[in-house]
Design goal:
- By secondary structure, the chain is mostly helical.
- The chain has 20 helices and 3 strands.
- Helix 6 packs parallel to helix 8, helix 9 packs antiparallel against helix 10 and helix 15 packs antiparallel against helix 16.
Length: 404
């Protein structure tokens, strides 16, 4: 699915939503027309993959949402050795079903293969899946290293490793320089293989940002967007760097574009809401709160005990000033096992707003005792109920940013 989306998005005539936005409709009791309306798309590709050992059976259909007409339908049988040919044929057949006329350059793009090894490709996809569940996880690193042991020139694996190492560096509060050096090494390997490859710019943007070279980071991020304008992560990285440089409005526009490409990515929703909150933009805040509320309710109906979803929903409710909703979410979150320091911090903010001060103090102390540096998105005024306490002084002095 990921590869088909990525391949079709290379074509100027098509705009294809990210897999994360479409996967929430798997097994949904909705019509094709209803799903297409929610996603604001004209066509739906649906299908199934069966795998037994090395054998594959793939069925796929292209449906025009307005009238439910199937424009194309086909079944493929083969093995993992045939996967690249099957993907290419599927993309070409969809283009034919849509009556698209491809340029010679676009035909070459559809034929592009970054490795000839199905085993390398499978290892890489498994690594992607681990990161999609939680960007803090590192178990995908071994999978990518195995892939590169087979094909050292497989650029996507170097890209994934560099971004993952960069994230680990940030998660360690930029104290573990080992992650930074590993990220740099992967960038150098990409540059040796193809210095102008579109996968080289995102990692370089992250690396320059980590070492404080923000202008260079911005240049790399702009290059990434120019080369891959339909890649949500390119706009996300650009928005983050623009925010770091103080270009708040430009940052919001970049995150809005990223959200258009992947409406389900809550990181973009939360960041837009945070910017709107700190700048006093109530119209934007209200608009994106409506999107956030609908998304989280949809997702939590499927995964009611997902702590990451609950924590993100709680943060959105705080920015929107919906502390009535936030209080209920905070109680649900506290009932879950393995509450993180970051979650305690967010829960404490809501408890302060609804007058549950003693419980807020307990949560802040758990946050402080964890020794982890969390995020700095919440204004210290959120914790005004703790003013005069050591907990409030800790927040004010270490982690929160006053409204400007």
């Amino acid at each position: 699915t990921d590869e088909l989306i990525s391949t079709l998005n290379k074509l100027d005539a098509l705009f294809v939503l990210d897999r994360k936005s479409s996967k929430i409709y798997k097994d949904a009791k909705m019509t094709i027309k209803q799903i297409a309306h929610e996603l604001n798309v004209r066509y739906i590709v649906t299908g199934a993959v069966r795998k037994a050992g090395d054998k594959l059976r793939i069925q796929a259909s292209l449906i025009e949402a307005a009238n439910g007409v199937t424009l194309w339908d086909e079944k493929f049988n083969g093995t993992m050795d045939d996967i690249f040919e099957i993907q290419e044929k599927t993309a070409l057949d969809i283009c034919e079903g849509l009556k698209l006329k491809l340029t010679p350059e676009e035909e070459l793009l559809l034929e592009e293969k970054l490795t000839n090894s199905p085993e390398v490709y499978q290892l890489y996809l498994r690594a992607l899946a681990t990161n999609a569940q939680d960007p803090r996880r590192t178990d995908g690193i071994e999978l990518c290293l195995k892939a590169l042991a087979i094909d050292p020139n497989f650029i996507p694996a170097h890209y994934w490793l560099s971004i993952t190492y960069s994230n680990q560096y940030r998660f360690s509060s930029m104290e573990n320089k080992h992650w930074l050096e590993l990220s740099k090494e992967e960038i150098q390997k990409i540059m040796e293989i193809d210095p102008k490859h579109y996968f080289s710019y995102g990692p370089r943007a992250n690396y320059y940002l980590n070492i404080g070279e923000k202008e260079l980071a911005l240049e790399m991020a702009l290059n990434a967007v120019e080369l891959q304008p339909k890649r949500r992560s390119s706009h996300g990285v650009l928005g983050f760097i623009q925010g770091e440089l103080g270009y708040k409005q430009e940052s919001i526009e970049s995150f809005k574009k990223a959200l258009e490409l992947d409406p389900s990515d809550t990181r973009f929703l939360i960041t837009i809401m945070a910017h709107a909150f700190h700048s006093g933009d109530s119209d934007t805040l209200e608009k994106y709160w409506a999107k956030a509320e609908q998304h989280y309710e949809h997702e939590l109906a499927r995964e009611p005990d997902n702590a990451l979803l609950l924590s993100s929903f709680l943060l959105a409710s705080q920015f929107a000033g919906r502390h009535d909703i936030g209080e209920a979410i905070a109680d649900r979150l506290l009932a879950r096992p393995n509450v993180t320091a970051e979650m305690y911090y967010t829960i404490a903010g809501t408890f302060c707003k609804v007058g549950r001060v003693e419980e807020a103090v307990k949560c802040i102390r758990l946050y402080i005792d964890s020794g982890e540096a969390a995020f700095d998105a919440i204004d210290p005024e959120w914790f005004a109920a703790l003013e005069g306490t050591s907990e409030y002084r800790f927040i004010l002095g270490n982690h929160a940013q006053p409204t400007k």
